[in-house]
Amino acid sequence: MNSATIHSNPISNYPPKLRLFPSNLHNFHRNHYLFAQPNKRMAFLGPLSSKISASGNATASGVDGGSGFQTLREFMGKGGENVRDELVVLFSHLEYACKRIAALVASPFSSNLGEGFSVVAGSDERDKPKPLDIVANEIILSSLKNSGKAAVMASEEDDAPVWLADDGPFVVVLDPLDGSRNIDASIPTGTIFGIYKRLVELDHLPVEERAILNSLQSGSKLIAAGYVLYSSATILCTSFGLGTHAFTLDHSTGDFILTHPNLKIPPRGQIYSVNDARYFDWPKGLKQYIDTVRQGKGRHPKKYSARYICSLVADFHRTLLYGGIAMNPRDHLRLVYEANPLSFLAEQAGGRGSDGKARILSLQPVKLHQRLPLFLGSPDDIDELESYGDIQQKVNPGYDV
Ligand SMILES: O=P(O)(O)OC[C@H]1O[C@](O)(COP(=O)(O)O)[C@@H](O)[C@@H]1O
């Protein structure tokens, strides 16, 4: 959440001369994406396509038998998840927004984006918005508006949810650009999103109330969730409730290609991911757990390694692939925008999402910007960690870095 005031429209001014993307989504897709030549795609995907063809999972999940690869849009259709058209439309707008954000994050022109913003005096230095957060938020907002499929968007960047369309079938909750405080060093960042159905039984309520209550649904009601990792590759990882699947952006065509069908988190990893400069503020149980596994004295007789990027999407993505635990034991990450969507993906991949005491998806959010301790990862590692009892960091002085 931030208290920024936007005095000019950063998107329409950006980039100063060169337009990276046409403003009209339809023409954009027409000219650049949907009608990309298949042969061109194949030429770029030679090694990848054979890798996917060799995977039983990929074939079973409907990878195009002839060409050996499948785009996200194809996957959402009959060959894969077969979700309904309305969700396909919503997703294609979200996908488009994230491609724009990916381009911005990597752009040499993004340093100009700070111009035209002012921040309300007195807000905590750490919580001050980075301009790219706001631009990313605006990009997603306009895409969701254009989709006509989102009733409401609740964003970590906004104080209150924005009502978009009375008949929109979906509710979208999101963190438009997580980890953005690392952005000047080109450290990976990410977008996190969750999708619920609009609660039609609330349609009679005043719009503000309707917007909030629709956005405060429990994670167990998610119908889809995902993240987009902006890193050396741009990865869109998603679940519609039938497994977790990751797609890699092919920059030559603009397609997200299925590269990690049916991701399964290893039941146990050998990596813990936490900001351990906070060690002296941790409770006894958490200290003991970390001391134990780093010495190789835990249930898994291997010395664990530490990895901490301090960018939640990147830390979670690595955990999904390699196993272990990505954690933030203090009340810092948000239930609605971060913990619920990522726990949904973790569970769909056979992993767990916990606040140290309870399953994240079983919690009923009471406030939009509610924060909590978060532990995501391999089931055996999280079980072992929780067996230490007090692992939630209650001392939370706020940290300046
Ligand atoms: O300072 P900590 O406790 O290590 O928190 C780092 C975490 O905060 C985040 O930067 C999110 O915080 P913000 O929402 O304030 O940007 C995550 O990407 C990261 O995992």
From TrEMBL:
Q: Enumerate the HAMAP family for this protein.
A: FBPase_class1
Fructose-1-6-bisphosphatase class I N-terminal domain residues are 81-261
Q: What organism does the UniProt record list as the source?
A: Handroanthus impetiginosus
Which InterPro entries does the record associate with it?
FBPase_C_dom (IPR044015), FBPase_class-1 (IPR000146), FBPase_N (IPR033391), FBPtase (IPR028343)
Q: Which residues form the Fructose-1-6-bisphosphatase class 1 C-terminal domain?
A: 265-388
GO BP terms = fructose 1,6-bisphosphate metabolic process; fructose 6-phosphate metabolic process; fructose metabolic process; gluconeogenesis; sucrose biosynthetic process
Reaction catalysed? beta-D-fructose 1,6-bisphosphate + H2O = beta-D-fructose 6-phosphate + phosphate
Question: Which UniProt keywords are given for this protein, alphabetically ordered?
Answer: Carbohydrate metabolism, Hydrolase
The molecular function GO annotations come to: fructose 1,6-bisphosphate 1-phosphatase activity
Q: What is its EC number?
A: 3.1.3.11
- Keyword Metal-binding belongs to the record: no
The source's superkingdom equals Eukaryota
Protein name, per record: fructose-bisphosphatase
Taken from the record, one Pfam family name reads FBPase_C
Q: Which family does it belong to?
A: Belongs to the FBPase class 1 family.
Enzyme class per UniProt: hydrolase
Which Gene Ontology cellular component terms are annotated?
A: cytosol
Indicate whether Membrane appears among the record's keywords.
no
